[in-house]
UniProtKB/TrEMBL annotation:
This is EB domain-containing protein. It holds the Pfam family EB. Signal peptide: none annotated. It comes from Photinus pyralis (Common eastern firefly). Residues 185-232, 235-280 form the EB domain.
Length: 354
């Protein structure tokens, strides 16, 4: 019989077990010999030195010990049975035995300890197949040990914790599972996707997801409709659709509004342009060349008085150009309608004061 000793508490348990075991023996030849040996524990180390000792039998020869054990002689105690190398001490209800330490995953086993010795404490012996496996919340790492499986964003101890959905690995940084440099987390949170930035090649929309408001168009990451690449090509900015819209860069204004720029975080018409509806149009003064009526309408009060006629900004019929007033009623019209205006005024006064 063998036992593993790891602490003083274990020694008390061993004493109790050995005493009861001896009471079960009917022969006078059996004496209660308790061999209490403390393990040498390595301070600050994750590996404990484990001593395997005979519970109460002494030995002279290997044949005196159970299978897979040998007689280890140490003065002055005498010979004691110990498990051979690559075997581990296991206690069942009635006896102790030395079982082979598992060589890896799927190795044959009877007890969990066989698997734990080689695969770590997150390994177990499958009761159905009698083969070593990692427990449900763990997986076999690249170091052939069982590691707890941690999702991206979860708390980790080593890179081997960060197993991803596609069987690749993330990176344990400052105790947190993250994607490696030049990778970003997928939409389902289970994979790390190669990051493709604006104007770089891409395989899918997820590749471009590292930049907000971007998508993969023809194998290249570009901003989606309604957004424009920033001047440094590192982000997508909302494009302005009308004069007066908010902005941080001129490119937001000029993309859809010709002749505009960003001034004090507002889209404004440049010098030589004026606002007309939601856009900026070229200035064309009275008598100057033009292509459209809106070029001549420099201010709102000219809306119904100026037209682009035969490629020149001209006052409408009945109005004439007069500086600095713009288009005013011409003198010929005033003379034509002057008598009627006078009579109208007289009639109005008569009606007001009968």
């Amino acid at each position: 019989p063998f036992v593993q000793v790891e602490s003083q508490r274990d020694l008390f348990q061993i004493t109790f077990t050995f005493t009861n075991y001896c009471k079960m023996k009917a022969t006078s030849e059996i004496a209660i010999i308790l061999v209490l040996t403390l393990l040498c524990l390595s301070c600050g180390s994750s590996t404990k030195v484990q001593e395997r000792i005979l519970s109460f039998y002494t030995c002279k020869y290997d044949i005196d010990c159970v299978e897979n054990a040998f007689c280890y002689w140490r003065a002055p105690e005498g010979g004691k049975c110990r498990c051979k190398e690559n075997f581990v001490l296991v206690q069942n209800k009635t006896s102790f035995e030395c079982l082979a330490v598992a060589t890896g995953i799927d190795s044959p086993c009877i007890e969990n300890i066989q698997c734990e010795m080689s695969l770590g404490n997150l390994a177990e012996c499958n009761a159905s197949s009698n083969k070593c496996q990692c427990i449900d919340v763990a997986h076999l790492g690249r170091d052939d040990k069982c590691h707890r499986t941690i999702a991206l964003g979860g708390i980790c101890e080593t890179n081997d914790n960060c197993l991803l959905g596609d069987e690749s690995y993330g990176f344990c940084y400052v105790g947190k599972c993250i994607c490696n440099v030049k990778y970003h987390i997928s939409s389902d949170g289970k994979r790390c996707i190669p990051s493709s930035f604006l104007q770089q090649s891409c395989e899918s929309a997820e590749s471009c997801a590292v930049t907000a408001f971007s998508d993969c168009y023809g194998g290249i990451c570009k901003c989606i409709e309604g957004y424009i690449e920033a001047e440094d090509f590192e982000s997508c900015l909302k494009a302005a659709s009308a004069v007066g819209d908010n902005c941080t860069q001129t490119i937001q204004c000029s993309e859809y509004i010709k002749g505009s720029f960003c001034d004090n975080n507002k889209c404004t018409c440049k010098t030589g342009y004026h606002g007309y509806g939601n856009e900026c149009t070229v200035d064309a003064k009275l008598g100057e060349a033009c292509k459209e009526d809106k070029e001549c309408i420099l201010t709102a009060n000219l809306e119904n008085s100026v037209r682009c006629t035969l490629g020149v900004c001209t006052c409408v019929v009945g109005l004439s150009s007069q500086e600095p007033y713009g288009c005013v009623i011409n003198s010929a019209v005033l003379k034509q309608y002057y008598p009627s205006l006078i009579m109208g005024l007289i009639l109005a006064l008569f009606l007001i004061n009968p």
